[in-house]
Protein backbone atom coordinates (compact mmCIF):
# COMPACT_ATOMS: atom_id res chain seq x y z
CA UNK A 1 0.00 0.00 0.00
CA UNK A 2 1.34 3.40 -0.99
CA UNK A 3 0.76 5.32 2.26
CA UNK A 4 1.82 8.61 0.71
CA UNK A 5 -0.75 8.19 -2.06
CA UNK A 6 -3.56 7.29 0.35
CA UNK A 7 -2.89 10.06 2.84
CA UNK A 8 -2.36 12.62 0.09
CA UNK A 9 -5.56 11.60 -1.73
CA UNK A 10 -7.74 11.60 1.36
CA UNK A 11 -6.42 14.99 2.44
CA UNK A 12 -6.82 16.42 -1.06
CA UNK A 13 -10.42 15.33 -1.55
CA UNK A 14 -11.45 16.23 1.97
CA UNK A 15 -10.49 19.78 0.98
CA UNK A 16 -12.17 19.63 -2.45
CA UNK A 17 -15.38 17.80 -1.50
CA UNK A 18 -17.54 20.86 -0.60
CA UNK A 19 -16.98 22.60 -3.93
CA UNK A 20 -15.71 19.84 -6.23
CA UNK A 21 -18.89 20.04 -8.34
CA UNK A 22 -18.05 23.64 -9.23
CA UNK A 23 -14.81 22.45 -10.83
CA UNK A 24 -16.67 19.55 -12.44
CA UNK A 25 -18.89 22.01 -14.35
CA UNK A 26 -16.07 22.35 -16.89
CA UNK A 27 -16.42 18.67 -17.86
CA UNK A 28 -20.10 18.14 -17.02
CA UNK A 29 -21.09 17.71 -20.67
CA UNK A 30 -18.73 14.76 -21.00
CA UNK A 31 -20.66 12.71 -18.42
CA UNK A 32 -23.65 12.16 -20.72
CA UNK A 33 -21.31 11.50 -23.65
CA UNK A 34 -19.66 8.71 -21.67
CA UNK A 35 -23.03 7.16 -20.82
CA UNK A 36 -24.02 7.36 -24.48
CA UNK A 37 -20.75 5.78 -25.65
CA UNK A 38 -21.26 2.94 -23.15
CA UNK A 39 -24.44 1.85 -25.02
CA UNK A 40 -25.05 -1.12 -22.72
CA UNK A 41 -28.37 -2.89 -22.23
CA UNK A 42 -30.72 -1.04 -19.88
CA UNK A 43 -30.54 -3.64 -17.11
CA UNK A 44 -26.73 -3.71 -17.11
CA UNK A 45 -24.73 -3.53 -13.89
CA UNK A 46 -22.21 -0.68 -13.99
CA UNK A 47 -19.36 0.04 -11.59
CA UNK A 48 -18.24 3.67 -11.41
CA UNK A 49 -14.68 3.51 -10.05
CA UNK A 50 -13.50 6.57 -8.10
CA UNK A 51 -16.99 8.02 -8.36
CA UNK A 52 -16.22 11.13 -6.29
CA UNK A 53 -19.39 13.21 -5.91
CA UNK A 54 -21.23 10.84 -8.24
CA UNK A 55 -21.60 12.91 -11.41
CA UNK A 56 -20.74 10.03 -13.75
CA UNK A 57 -22.81 7.59 -11.72
CA UNK A 58 -25.84 9.88 -12.03
CA UNK A 59 -25.32 10.12 -15.80
CA UNK A 60 -25.44 6.31 -15.96
CA UNK A 61 -28.44 6.32 -13.63
CA UNK A 62 -30.46 8.43 -16.07
CA UNK A 63 -30.08 5.62 -18.61
CA UNK A 64 -31.68 3.15 -16.20
CA UNK A 65 -28.52 1.18 -15.44
CA UNK A 66 -27.97 -0.51 -12.07
CA UNK A 67 -25.05 1.62 -10.84
CA UNK A 68 -22.65 1.27 -7.92
CA UNK A 69 -20.16 4.07 -7.34
CA UNK A 70 -17.12 3.39 -5.17
CA UNK A 71 -14.57 5.80 -3.78
CA UNK A 72 -11.92 5.99 -1.08
CA UNK A 73 -13.11 9.40 0.13
CA UNK A 74 -16.03 9.40 2.56
CA UNK A 75 -16.18 13.19 2.23
CA UNK A 76 -16.82 12.97 -1.51
CA UNK A 77 -19.40 10.22 -1.07
CA UNK A 78 -21.29 12.29 1.51
CA UNK A 79 -21.86 14.87 -1.23
CA UNK A 80 -22.85 12.14 -3.70
CA UNK A 81 -25.38 10.62 -1.31
CA UNK A 82 -26.96 14.00 -0.56
CA UNK A 83 -27.51 14.59 -4.29
CA UNK A 84 -28.64 11.07 -5.17
CA UNK A 85 -32.21 11.00 -6.52
CA UNK A 86 -31.93 7.64 -8.25
CA UNK A 87 -33.15 4.34 -6.80
CA UNK A 88 -30.84 2.50 -9.21
CA UNK A 89 -27.68 4.30 -8.01
CA UNK A 90 -25.86 3.63 -4.74
CA UNK A 91 -22.46 4.42 -3.30
CA UNK A 92 -19.92 2.55 -1.19
CA UNK A 93 -16.63 3.48 0.43
CA UNK A 94 -13.99 1.17 -1.02
CA UNK A 95 -10.31 0.93 -1.87
CA UNK A 96 -10.29 0.78 -5.67
CA UNK A 97 -7.04 -1.24 -5.66
CA UNK A 98 -9.02 -4.03 -3.93
CA UNK A 99 -12.58 -3.77 -5.28
CA UNK A 100 -14.98 -5.65 -2.96
CA UNK A 101 -16.89 -7.51 -5.69
CA UNK A 102 -16.43 -10.94 -7.19
CA UNK A 103 -14.82 -11.65 -10.54
CA UNK A 104 -16.98 -11.00 -13.64
CA UNK A 105 -19.71 -9.22 -11.65
CA UNK A 106 -20.30 -6.07 -13.73
CA UNK A 107 -21.29 -5.59 -17.36
CA UNK A 108 -19.36 -2.32 -17.46
CA UNK A 109 -16.64 -0.77 -15.32
CA UNK A 110 -15.89 2.92 -15.79
CA UNK A 111 -12.84 4.82 -14.56
CA UNK A 112 -13.60 8.47 -15.12
CA UNK A 113 -11.08 11.28 -14.46
CA UNK A 114 -9.25 9.22 -11.85
CA UNK A 115 -6.09 7.62 -13.25
CA UNK A 116 -4.37 11.00 -13.53
CA UNK A 117 -4.56 11.26 -9.73
CA UNK A 118 -2.54 8.07 -9.17
CA UNK A 119 1.10 6.96 -9.23
CA UNK A 120 1.94 4.19 -11.69
CA UNK A 121 1.73 1.26 -9.27
CA UNK A 122 -1.72 2.33 -8.10
CA UNK A 123 -2.94 2.84 -11.69
CA UNK A 124 -1.91 -0.71 -12.54
CA UNK A 125 -3.75 -2.16 -9.54
CA UNK A 126 -6.91 -0.17 -10.31
CA UNK A 127 -6.93 -1.25 -13.96
CA UNK A 128 -6.33 -4.86 -12.96
CA UNK A 129 -9.23 -4.75 -10.51
CA UNK A 130 -11.57 -3.03 -12.97
CA UNK A 131 -10.86 -5.74 -15.53
CA UNK A 132 -11.26 -8.49 -12.94
CA UNK A 133 -14.78 -7.47 -11.89
CA UNK A 134 -15.96 -6.96 -15.49
CA UNK A 135 -17.67 -9.82 -17.31
CA UNK A 136 -16.07 -11.36 -20.42
CA UNK A 137 -17.26 -9.37 -23.46
CA UNK A 138 -18.21 -6.57 -21.04
CA UNK A 139 -16.79 -3.08 -21.36
CA UNK A 140 -14.12 -1.15 -19.51
CA UNK A 141 -14.48 2.60 -20.11
CA UNK A 142 -11.59 4.94 -19.36
CA UNK A 143 -12.12 8.70 -19.42
CA UNK A 144 -9.28 11.07 -18.71
CA UNK A 145 -7.17 14.00 -19.81
CA UNK A 146 -5.26 14.11 -23.08
CA UNK A 147 -3.31 16.78 -24.94
CA UNK A 148 -4.30 18.35 -28.28
CA UNK A 149 -2.02 17.88 -31.29
CA UNK A 150 -1.53 21.61 -31.84
CA UNK A 151 1.57 22.79 -29.91
CA UNK A 152 0.00 26.00 -28.59
CA UNK A 153 -3.17 24.19 -27.55
CA UNK A 154 -1.09 21.47 -25.86
CA UNK A 155 0.83 24.08 -23.87
CA UNK A 156 -2.32 25.92 -22.78
CA UNK A 157 -4.23 22.74 -21.93
CA UNK A 158 -1.36 21.26 -19.91
CA UNK A 159 -0.66 24.38 -17.86
CA UNK A 160 -4.34 25.12 -17.23
CA UNK A 161 -5.12 21.62 -15.95
CA UNK A 162 -1.92 21.58 -13.90
CA UNK A 163 -3.21 24.60 -11.94
CA UNK A 164 -5.88 22.58 -10.17
CA UNK A 165 -4.99 18.91 -10.56
CA UNK A 166 -2.93 16.71 -8.21
CA UNK A 167 0.83 16.25 -8.19
CA UNK A 168 0.43 13.05 -10.21
CA UNK A 169 -1.01 14.80 -13.29
CA UNK A 170 2.31 15.74 -15.01
CA UNK A 171 3.55 12.14 -14.88
CA UNK A 172 0.22 10.85 -16.15
CA UNK A 173 -0.06 13.19 -19.11
CA UNK A 174 3.48 12.32 -20.27
CA UNK A 175 2.69 8.58 -20.22
CA UNK A 176 0.87 6.53 -22.85
CA UNK A 177 -2.42 5.39 -21.36
CA UNK A 178 -3.09 2.95 -24.18
CA UNK A 179 0.29 1.29 -23.61
CA UNK A 180 -0.64 0.88 -19.95
CA UNK A 181 -3.77 -1.12 -20.86
CA UNK A 182 -1.95 -3.48 -23.27
CA UNK A 183 -1.06 -6.03 -20.58
CA UNK A 184 -4.74 -6.69 -19.86
CA UNK A 185 -7.03 -8.77 -22.06
CA UNK A 186 -8.81 -5.82 -23.59
CA UNK A 187 -9.74 -4.88 -27.13
CA UNK A 188 -10.02 -1.17 -27.91
CA UNK A 189 -13.39 -0.64 -29.59
CA UNK A 190 -13.70 3.13 -29.70
CA UNK A 191 -11.53 6.17 -29.09
CA UNK A 192 -13.25 9.54 -28.73
CA UNK A 193 -11.50 12.88 -28.48
CA UNK A 194 -13.57 15.63 -26.84
CA UNK A 195 -13.11 19.16 -25.51
CA UNK A 196 -10.83 20.09 -28.41
CA UNK A 197 -8.56 17.14 -27.73
CA UNK A 198 -8.11 17.82 -24.01
CA UNK A 199 -10.09 14.72 -22.96
CA UNK A 200 -10.25 11.18 -24.34
CA UNK A 201 -12.86 8.45 -23.92
CA UNK A 202 -11.58 4.90 -24.48
CA UNK A 203 -14.04 2.01 -24.74
CA UNK A 204 -12.60 -1.50 -24.35
CA UNK A 205 -14.10 -4.97 -24.56
CA UNK A 206 -12.86 -7.58 -22.10
CA UNK A 207 -11.75 -10.64 -24.05
SSE pattern, N- to C-terminal: HHHEHEHEEHEHHHEE
Helix content: 40-55%
Shape: globular
> So, CATH architecture?
3-Layer(aba) Sandwich
CATH topology: Rossmann fold
Let me know the number of strands: 7
Distance between the termini: 29 Å
Rounded radius of gyration (Å):
16 Å
Strand order of the largest sheet: 3-2-1-4-5-7-6
Please identify the top-level CATH class.
Alpha Beta
Q: Which stretches are low in confidence, meaning pLDDT under 50 for 5 or more residues running?
A: none
What portion of residues belong to β-strands?
A: 25-35%
What is the CATH superfamily label? Vaccinia Virus protein VP39
Helices, strands, pairings?
Blueprint: H1 3-16, H2 20-24, H3 28-38, E1 45-49, H4 55-62, E2 66-71, H5 74-83, E3 89-93, E4 106-112, H6 120-132, E5 134-145, H7 151-164, H8 169-174, H9 177-180, E6 186-194, E7 199-206
Give structural notes.
The chain has 207 residues and is of the alpha/beta class. Helix content is 41%, strand content 25%. It has 9 helices and 7 strands, in the order H-H-H-E-H-E-H-E-E-H-E-H-H-H-E-E. The longest helix has 14 residues, at 3-16. The radius of gyration is 16 Å and the shape is globular. The mean pLDDT is 91.
Features:
207 residues, alpha/beta, Rossmann fold, seven-stranded mixed beta sheet, 25% strand, globular
Short description:
This protein has helices at 3-16, 20-24, 28-38, 55-62, 74-83, 120-132, 151-164, 169-174, 177-180; strands at residues 45-49, 66-71, 89-93, 106-112, 134-145, 186-194, 199-206. The protein is α/β, with parallel strands linked by helices.
Amino acid sequence: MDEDYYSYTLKCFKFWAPFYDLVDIVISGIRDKVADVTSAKKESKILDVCTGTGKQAFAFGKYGYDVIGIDLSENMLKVANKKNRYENVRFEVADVTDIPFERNYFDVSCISFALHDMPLDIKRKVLEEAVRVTKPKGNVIIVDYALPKNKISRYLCYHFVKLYESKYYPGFIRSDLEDLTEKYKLELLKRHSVMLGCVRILKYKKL
